[in-house]
Amino acid sequence: MKNIFLIEEFKFYEKTHFYTIRDENKADSETDLFIKRFFEENASGFQNDYYDDLTLILEWIRQIGKRGMKICSLRHENDAKALPPDKILPADLLYLGRNRGKLRLYCIPLPPGVIILCGGGLKTSQKVQESPDLIAHFRLANQIAKKITEALISQEITIERGKLQGLMEIWI
Amino acid sequence: MASKYFDKALAGIKPENRLFMQKNLDITEQVFAILKEKKLTQRDLAQLLGKSEPEVSRMLSGFQNLTLKTIVRLEMVLGQEIVTTPLRAKEKWENEKEIPALQITFFSSTAFTPIDIYKQPTSETPGMAAYSREATSPKPIPVKVTFDRKVQALS
What we know:
The complex is a heterodimer of chains A (172) and B (155). Chain A is an alpha+beta fold and 172 residues long.
């Protein structure tokens, strides 16, 4: 049986418009589920080593939104990409927890000025295939990326003035 | 529908983390702007710095802890200031804002005639009729030079 994912607005900034995907049977989008998971664990007093990672990923979204996509190179994850950008965190940025840099949020950049955010999780191994928390999100993001590329080629989806238009649902 | 959690969660970022990223990206953006203005690529910059392209790419990642030495080196090879302080910016602004009138020579836009502003302009001075009505003092006309280098008479 196929699942239907709806493409919905996530956050619009001056230079980049962010969309997200939502399983039509779920109340929250994949990106909101990712945020909620790490945000709420922190809010409930649970010692969350990844909360700083989460807020930095969100700050990257804000900065890309305000400054444009050119300011960073996203991680290559087959057909999809991931945040945070593929750069080594400076050792002296010690405000992060001891497990820093292990969160990944998958996304699909569609230049100029559109990024579709997917879900994400914890990367606990060198290869994503060996990270149980992440592999499902990795596969979904890549499937969505392929479908969106096809939809752009067939013009079922178009980008006009930084906004997606057309058939805003993906069958996986 | 917009995100339910994004703004709330983002508000929880540590101020030092946000500031660190912002300042890094400010520098990165400034470098990119200079490269664009000078029609240089990252490869050109790598050559100028004597570094490899990946090193330069990492340097401009927005998450590299740039040392003052690196910033100065960038300013040297690009021939332009990248970072300044509010005090230096104010000083520069004050110096550029007002230039003594005696250093300025007006050119009439109509006749392209140089006008010596030591001399009190009169209604006969080409292009200066408006000024001559206001000029009752023998002092030179004070002028303001704006950031876009246009000269304006201060009324």
